[in-house]
User: Which sequence fits this backbone?
């Protein structure tokens, strides 16, 4: 009986210890569950060390080593505000319209326009007679008007004038770096060509010195070629006219002060 009672008491103590152990384990489990819930509700606070920096794209939810900043690719969440367009279409439309406006203005002001060349007539004629060789020498000064319709100055770099009687060339003149014409303006340019009527045209000596005739007009064909330079662009224009000149006497037409 004594032994039975002692064994019963030992079994009871073992049961009580087992129950205490189970209760302690259950308490630990409950405490861990409560701790996880508390952690889940507690906002994340990051404490970075010396060898790490705050992740630039995760808004404080992680950190990367400093030496790996240039080696890693940041993953930005789709819901990140930086990915949300903020008036992007408006800015794009305004930028396109501004570029079109600037291009239109540049084309309008820099687009090459035509250069008009018009005949200004004969301004002065000076005649010399070589009685021995029967040669008539004429210095003929003609004028031409050049109109610049561009928004920038143009330079007349070359001018060539050729005068013919019938199919015979009787005079040629070439000028370089003639003049500079300001924007949206016109300018008169004078050209003096020396003509010689002799050789096969020696009969002009008798006609031009004939005293019974007051006006000794002859008709000559005048062709002038001009070359222009502006903003790195080269262009060419020509003028062809028929001129009446008096080979019997000197003549001068009053010049306009605007003529160069």
Assistant:
């Amino acid at each position: 009986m004594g032994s039975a009672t002692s064994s019963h008491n030992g079994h009871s103590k073992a049961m009580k210890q087992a129950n205490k152990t189970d209760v302690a384990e259950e308490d630990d489990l409950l405490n861990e569950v409560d701790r996880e819930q508390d952690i889940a509700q507690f906002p994340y606070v990051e404490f970075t060390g010396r060898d790490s920096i705050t992740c630039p794209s995760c808004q404080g939810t992680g950190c990367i080593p400093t030496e790996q900043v240039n080696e890693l690719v940041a993953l930005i969440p789709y819901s990140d505000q930086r990915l949300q367009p903020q008036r992007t279409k408006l800015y794009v439309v305004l930028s396109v319209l501004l570029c079109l406006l600037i291009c239109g203005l540049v084309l309008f002001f820099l687009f090459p326009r035509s250069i008009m060349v018009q005949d200004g007539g004969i301004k002065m004629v000076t005649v010399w007679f070589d009685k021995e060789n029967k040669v008539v020498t004429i210095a003929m000064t003609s004028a031409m008007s050049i109109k610049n319709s561009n928004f920038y100055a143009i330079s007349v770099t070359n001018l060539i004038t050729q005068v013919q009687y019938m199919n015979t060339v009787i005079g040629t003149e070439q000028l370089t770096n003639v003049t500079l014409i300001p924007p949206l303006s016109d300018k008169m340019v004078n050209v003096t060509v020396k003509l010689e009527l002799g050789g096969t045209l020696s009969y002009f000596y008798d006609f031009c010195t004939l005293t019974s005739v007051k006006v000794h007009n002859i008709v000559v064909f005048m062709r002038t070629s001009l070359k222009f330079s502006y903003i790195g662009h080269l262009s060419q224009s020509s003028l062809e006219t028929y001129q009446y000149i008096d080979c019997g006497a000197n003549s001068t037409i009053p010049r306009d002060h605007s003529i160069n």
User: Anything to note?
Assistant: The longest strand covers residues 115-130.
